[in-house]
Design a protein that fits this description.
Elements: H1 2-13, H2 17-27, E1 43-46, E2 53-56, H3 58-70, H4 89-99, E3 106-109, H5 116-129, E4 135-139, H6 140-152, H7 159-164, E5 171-175, H8 184-199, E6 203-208, H9 212-217, H10 223-232, E7 234-237
Parallel strand pairs: 3-6, 3-7, 4-5, 5-6
Antiparallel strand pairs: 1-2
Helix pairs in contact: 2-3, 8-10
């Protein structure tokens, strides 16, 4: 048992902080409730006419869902479509468009304080509660740091890039895309990610103070990346 615990510790150390949190929650014993099906092991018997083996218990998905919601920053913990208060027709339209199409991809653009990130986390919450645990939220800085580490650390796998590379449904929430100073490296890794998301037809929701044209003119994003974003996302002014 001690050897198993040591192995788990080593594995968690190689994970992104977000995945470390989920791994800890999924294996740590709960004092509040114990799954009556798997006794919190995460595995249950797969039974038919003949005993086949083990399969993941349904409680695992619920634990992941709880873990995903707990990653929402405290400031946006109560961000829902119901708690968003539009102050003008533009924001009313934005709320209607996004809440009416929770499986859609959006580029949310508007001035500071217009509620772009509120709507981003409201959509994130809707997707998680609907049972789609294949999603991540990243700021531009966090995303670039993650992709840089994946590029230079052979022992690290980017959760975002790994999920984006698979055909299973996935949605990336990218906050503050304009907070970027371009370099050749950033352009290369971000284009690879955007192109992978585009090829796999994944969901993508972005917030920015700039329009797509402004991203190019202010040299915040390479035109090739912006073209991919334009193809994938519905532009919504907030």
């Amino acid at each position: 048992m001690q050897q198993l615990a040591s192995t788990l510790t080593v594995i968690r150390g190689k994970l992104h902080p977000e995945e470390q949190a989920e791994a800890t929650r999924s294996t740590a014993p709960s004092s509040e409730s114990v799954c009556p099906i798997c006794d919190d092991t995460g595995w249950r018997r797969a039974e038919g006419e003949v005993f086949i083996g083990l399969k993941r218990c349904e409680c695992v998905r619920e634990k992941i869902r709880v873990a995903r919601l707990s990653l929402i920053p405290e400031r946006f913990r109560d961000s829902t479509f119901e708690s968003y208060c539009p102050r003008n027709p533009k924001q009313e339209r934005a709320l209607s468009l996004i809440s009416g199409d929770p499986s859609g991809s959006f580029y949310l653009t508007g001035s500071y304080g217009s509620g772009k990130t509120h709507l981003l986390y409201a959509l994130y919450r809707e997707i998680v509660l609907a049972g789609n645990t294949g999603c991540h939220v990243r700021t531009t800085r966090g995303l670039v740091e993650e992709l840089r580490r994946a590029e230079f650390d052979d022992a690290f796998v980017s959760p975002v890039l790994a999920a984006a590379s698979k055909p299973e449904p996935y949605h990336l929430f990218w906050d503050d895309i304009d907070k970027l100073k371009t370099t050749d490296f950033k352009t290369e890794v971000l284009f690879d990610l955007a192109d992978t998301m585009y090829s796999q037809n994944h969901g993508l929701t972005i917030t920015s103070n700039y329009s797509l044209r402004d991203l190019i003119e202010r040299e915040r994003m390479h035109p090739a990346i912006v073209r991919r974003l334009d193809d994938m996302c519905r532009i919504v002014e907030v």
